[in-house]
Specification:
It is a single chain. The protein is an alpha+beta fold and 280 residues long. Helix content is 34%, strand content 18%. It has 7 helices and 7 strands, in the order αααααβββαββββα. Strands 1, 2, 3, 4, 5, 6 and 7 form a 7-stranded mixed β-sheet that branches. The longest helix has 19 residues, at 115-133. It is globular and about 60 Å long. The relative contact order is 0.15.
C-alpha cells in the first residue's frame, strides 16, 4: 500500500498497494481498510496470544477504545472486533449484536458520501452481516508476534540491494517503537543503480517524490519514505551502512509508507514506477 504519513507510535502492518486516503484514517471500503480497525485487530490477537480469555480480551478492548458517549468511530471498533473474533473462532455474543446493530443503523455508511464508494461499503457490510450469522471456525491458535528490531539509528545512510539487482538508498530520519518493536522511519533517495553508492550520495541525489491525491484535490507530492520493519533480519549482503549524516530539517515533509503484500521490494518498485510515470 501507498499510505499516509506514519506517526510515531504507529504499528506497521501488511497492506496492499492502493490510494492515499484522507478521511478518518480509512483508505477503502473494507472492514480493515482503516487505521483504527487494524489497531483493534492487532490488539485482539495480541491479548489472545498472551492468554486472555475472549471475555477478558473483549473487556480490555472496550476499556481502551470505547468512549462514553460513543464517538464518530464507535462503529469502526465494533465491526472490527466482531470480524476479528469470528475469524479466530471466538465471537462473543454481545460483540456480534453490537456489530449487527451498527450495520442495521446504517452508521457504518456515514463516512462514504460518494455513490460508488458507498455502494462498495454497502456490499462489504452485507457480507459482514452474513459472516457474523454464519458458523464461525474452530478457535485458532494465535502465536505471539515476533518483535521488530533494528541496528540502525537517525542519520544512518543505508544502501539496500533490491531483488532485481539494483541499489537504492535509505536515509534514517528517526526510530520509533510500539508494542510491535522498533522500526526505522526513512527517506528514500532518488537513486537506483547497480553500482554501490558511497556516502556522498546524500549530497548529490534528491529525495524520491511521493505523489498522492485526496478526493477532488489536485495532485500533491511530498518525499517518499519507507518504514523499515525488522531491519535486523535483512541479510547483510542486501543492506550496507554507508555512514551517518545529519539530515537537514528543511528537506520537506516525508510520507512514511508501509510495505504491503509485495514486501519491501514491491513497494520500492511501485514508488520508482510512479515517479517515472509522473516524469513523462
Amino acid at each position: 500500500m501507498l499510505h499516509t504519513e506514519l506517526p510515531i507510535g504507529y504499528s506497521p502492518r501488511v497492506r496492499a498497494i492502493g490510494h492515499y486516503a484522507c478521511a478518518m484514517g480509512a483508505w477503502g471500503a473494507g472492514i480493515f481498510s482503516d487505521d483504527l480497525a487494524c489497531d483493534v485487530r492487532e490488539d485482539w490477537r495480541e491479548f489472545i496470544a498472551d492468554g486472555k480469555s475472549p471475555r477478558e480480551a473483549t473487556d480490555a478492548l472496550i476499556a481502551k477504545y470505547v468512549n462514553d458517549p460513543p464517538d464518530d468511530e464507535d462503529h469502526v471498533f465494533w465491526l472490527a472486533l466482531a470480524v476479528s473474533q469470528w475469524k479466530t473462532g471466538r465471537l462473543v455474543d454481545d460483540v456480534r449484536d453490537r456489530a449487527l446493530a451498527v450495520i442495521d443503523s446504517g452508521k457504518g455508511l456515514d463516512p462514504w458520501r460518494d455513490a460508488a464508494d458507498r455502494s462498495k461499503r454497502e456490499r462489504v457490510l452485507a457480507q459482514t452481516r452474513e459472516q457474523l450469522w454464519s458458523e464461525q471456525p474452530h478457535p485458532t491458535r494465535i502465536r505471539k508476534r515476533a518483535k521488530s528490531a533494528t541496528p540502525f539509528g537517525p542519520g544512518d545512510v543505508l544502501a539496500y540491494r533490491h531483488g532485481d539487482g539494483y541499489y537504492v538508498v535509505f536515509w534514517v530520519l528517526s526510530n520509533f517503537s510500539d508494542r510491535g518493536g522498533e522500526y526505522n522511519h526513512t527517506e528514500l533517495l532518488d537513486y537506483a543503480s547497480e553500482q554501490l553508492p558511497d556516502l556522498t550520495v546524500v549530497g548529490s541525489r534528491p529525495a524520491l517524490p511521493y505523489y498522492w491525491r485526496c478526493e477532488t484535490e489536485p495532485l500533491h507530492h511530498d518525499i517518499a519514505g519507507i518504514a523499515l520493519i525488522s531491519a535486523d533480519k535483512i541479510k547483510s549482503d542486501r543492506i550496507v551502512l554507508l555512514g551517518r549524516r545529519h539530515r537537514p530539517g528543511n528537506r520537506g515533509k516525508v510520507h512514511c509508507l508501509i510495505p504491503g503484500k509485495g514486501g519491501l521490494d514491491g513497494l520500492i518498485t511501485q514508488l520508482f514506477n510512479e515517479r517515472a510515470a509522473h516524469a513523462t
